[in-house]
Specification:
alpha/beta, DHBP synthase, 11-stranded mixed sheet, 8 helices, globular
Length: about 240
């Protein structure tokens, strides 16, 4: 596995690399890292990437072989789809069947500003939509719905701008409650079987995103993270 460390002023006290990793580790700026990572994604590789919440396993959202590798690596039940990450609303329009009034309100409050540009800072929110009929069923594991988040982490946005949408799932074995906020907390079996790891060299929040189903006008809470459901309901009043 190749490791990329982003050049940051602050060093991470939880640096997990050991002497055997050093030959495969480089330290570069975020733009260079994004170019390398997008190349891996386009080649059908599996990556460990930082997000605005936790470290996750990622690959191109529509690469069946890479998706299956992640299911096997995580020991995840095959009927559970992954969250898809996008970097801009234009990508969302290609993935979903519709954006109803509820979804539009939440997007404008938590994903983008009045100019439709992604907020740099806001609490992470994943929305579940009706999927576009053009989306292959293996991506959503046969479901007619698709979970999507516009992630705010700058390095991740740069990667997705180049690669297109990717999936993201916690870089852990399924059933383990811990959500890795640094690379030290990622199980060794996960790290050994990924093709590329990008180390932000800073601790992430370590709390997964709130998930809301917006396939109908009445929002349905699927999972509550840092963003509380009561706050979301307030925006919809």
């Amino acid at each position: 596995m190749k490791i990329i460390r982003l050049n940051t002023k602050k060093k991470n006290s939880n640096d997990a690399a050991n002497a055997t990793d050093l030959a495969n580790t480089i330290s570069i700026d975020s733009s260079s890292a994004a170019n390398i990572a997008s190349g891996y994604i386009s080649a059908g590789k599996v990556l460990i990437l930082p997000t605005s919440t936790i470290y996750g396993l990622s690959c191109s959202y529509d690469n069946k072989n890479a998706l299956e590798k992640i299911y096997e690596l995580k020991q995840r039940p095959g009927n559970l789809p992954f969250i898809v990450l996008v970097s801009k609303i234009d990508s969302l329009l290609q993935l979903v069947a519709e954006i109803n009034r509820t979804a539009d309100t939440l997007i404008k409050n938590y994903w983008t500003d009045k100019n439709s540009k992604p907020y740099k800072t806001s609490l992470p929110l994943t929305l579940i939509f009706k999927k576009n009929n053009s989306i292959d069923s293996f991506i959503t594991r046969g479901s007619k719905k698709i979970a999507i988040r516009l992630d705010k982490l700058e390095i991740l946005k740069k990667i997705i701008d180049l690669s297109g949408p990717i999936i993201s799932t916690s870089a852990t074995i399924s059933g383990i409650s811990q959500s890795p906020k640094n690379i030290k907390e990622i199980p060794e079996v996960i790290k050994k079987n990924a093709d590329l790891l990008i180390d932000l060299c800073l601790d992430l929040p370590g709390i997964a995103s709130t998930i809301i189903d917006v396939t109908e006008l009445e929002p349905v809470l699927i999972r509550e993270g840092t963003l509380k459901y009561t706050k979301i309901l307030d925006k919809l009043l």
